[in-house]
């Protein structure tokens, strides 16, 4: 859609000409007076859709919780949640040798710090500090209770001042503490600037950068984070100083959210303190899209998917269930009201209270009401003094250290380099090993190693139907069409063309607006081009327009805005613009869609399929000559729609991503999360979908790599070799065309293609 700034910049000279008397005055467009203008608040449709889906999931989950009347029912749900969460994050990994090394020790009066390095996966090095009470410590009576700490999103990880303060005090109190750096923090930065040796992206950025491609493989970044913690606990329990019957767990902020995961995933923990984590349900009170979304590991992808299988309705899991799975063991939630609308969503306080009420109900059913607590800090987001005191007291109460003073002494600092476990302060530059990027690549190779061979010519139809079946499931498409309710908003004529503005409904809450353009005065059914661009529909109505020029050659053009694009870009949430900045459409709506099992890409593919239904209702469309053009991300959606619907005679994919695998294998990529779909690489990639179009005509024009760079023809042919073989088997080798040319030649390339398609 053209912006006001762009319009003024590109048309300033043209606007001056009439004022200077240059050129004859142009006739005004002929506008149909009988048409009415409908409400054009398309920006509200997607929020309404998402709200309806989330509230339906909320209602089902709340009904399930209200049905927990006995201790046995609570325990049954807890076990189901534990199994479900492992499934959601991608499953347990193989336990391999930890190969622990103590690279140095810092001696202090009442405790020592051991600098530990272990392997959570083969050649995946984890840096950690182990705080051990010294023999002269008056509170030290071995074997010691131990605390495992998952860290929040601090760049310096375990060396963050207030986290160190917690660990120092616990060690003085007679606890062993193990604090380990997560991926992207401390000594485990994954995206290093070679000039500075520091992260290019920051902790949250690193997590999302690694986590988004992982979705394509059917896993979550929370799997890597949780597995690091599981293996850290394995190491902690190898220490002879540790009492395995008194293990505590705590974490702040993002580490608080990971504490929530471990409450569900790790049964060896005996008491937990979750501090200022994401302790609100996505399907919480007063849901306002996109809701309480966060970075890659903090969203329970598929947790609120409403699909029912043969065994009945699926178990719905929200963040509150992570904590409930810890019952009846001692659990304290700490939060601050300062986080509402800043660190977390505007309903954070209300949402946290709702989760606590859920916990109180479950603990009461289990006869353990006194083992769950809620503490409110009045200070800004941090593991502050008030939270620290609450944590010390809670652990003392439940891990056998009642009466031990919780007073803090002066903070003991060390030079940053002295705290490093590695020689350079970064694992990747000192030890090497496997980066998170390499982990993703290795996983992709494992998946592709079992891919099936190309089908024979006799099996092509069966192969295509199998792909369609899998694609419908992956995209989570609706099982039935909604009423289209088409509406013509306005029409006018100009420059030899007839224009209409229209919309139809692809779902009950969602209108798809579009432009209809055809030669002026033409009444016959015309060959029709459906135009789908990631930049929206309005470029076809600009002057000049490539598609308007194509229409003058005897075609009708139907350009639509897929949901979330162009005039359907969603309104801002009613509350909390500070929290939602940067996480609004592509990221926020995409994470929410993935959580409820409705990926945005699937929603957009559905919009295209319903557009074909809409064209069936128009008498000026020749359905036997229907073409589809997808631009950018729209090319991905268009390819999938074409695989699913045979009504399309030919498909043109311009500047579309060549393959998803390249995103997994690249350290940097620019594709938005909304164009990714969970688990697709377990089944197929984009070249496999192109092969499923055979024998229909398909033009791949300037396919791009992960950074939207145009690939060479040789590189494209390598990626699409199997697709070309399938077309050859179908005796249609000339109907799949790969073309690389300057972007300015799009119109000519399109017209040449349409002559023969």
Write the layout of secondary structure elements.
Layout (H helix, E strand, L loop, with lengths): L3 H16 L10 E2 L13 H22 L4 H19 L11 E7 L3 E11 L2 E10 L10 E7 L10 H12 L3 E5 L21 H15 L4 H16 L5 E11 L1 H12 L5 E5 L32 E2 L2 E2 L5 H6 L6 E6 L11 H18 L6 E6 L7 H14 L17 H4 L7 H4 L5 H13 L11 H16 L11 E8 L2 E11 L2 E10 L6 E8 L12 H6 L4 E5 L16 H4 L4 H11 L4 H17 L4 E11 L1 H12 L5 E5 L6 H4 L21 H6 L5 E5 L11 H7 L1 H9 L6 E4 L6 H11 L1
Parallel strand pairs: 5-6, 5-7, 7-8, 8-11, 11-12, 16-17, 16-18, 18-19, 19-20, 20-21
Antiparallel strand pairs: 1-13, 2-3, 3-4, 4-6, 9-10, 13-14, 14-15, 15-17
Helix pairs in contact: 6-7, 18-19
Structural class: alpha/beta
Helix content: 25-40%
Report the total helices. 24
- Rg is 29 Å
Q: Which stretches are poorly predicted, pLDDT < 50 over at least 5 residues?
A: 1-36
Question: What is the typical, i.e. mean, pLDDT?
Answer: 92
| CATH homology superfamily of the largest domain | Alpha/Beta hydrolase fold, catalytic domain
Q: In which order are the strands of the major sheet placed? A: 1-13-14-15-17-16-18-19-20-21
The CATH topology of the largest domain is what? Rossmann fold
Task: Describe the global form.
Answer: elongated
Q: So what's the CATH class of the largest domain?
A: Alpha Beta
Give a nutshell description of this structure.
This protein is of the alpha/beta class and 757 residues long.
Overview of the molecule:
It is a single chain. The protein is α/β, with parallel strands linked by helices and 757 residues long. It folds into two domains: 69-281 and 318-422, Alpha/Beta hydrolase fold, catalytic domain (Rossmann fold), CATH 3.40.50.1820; 456-756, Rossmann fold (3-Layer(aba) Sandwich). Helix content is 36%, strand content 19%. It is built from 24 helices and 21 strands. Strands 1-13-14-15-17-16-18-19-20-21 form a ten-stranded mixed beta sheet, sandwiched between helices. A nine-stranded mixed beta sheet has the order 2-3-4-6-5-7-8-11-12, sandwiched between helices. Strand 3 (111-121) and strand 4 form a beta hairpin. The longest helix has 22 residues, at 45-66. The chain is elongated and about 95 Å long. The model is unreliable at 1-36 (pLDDT under 50).
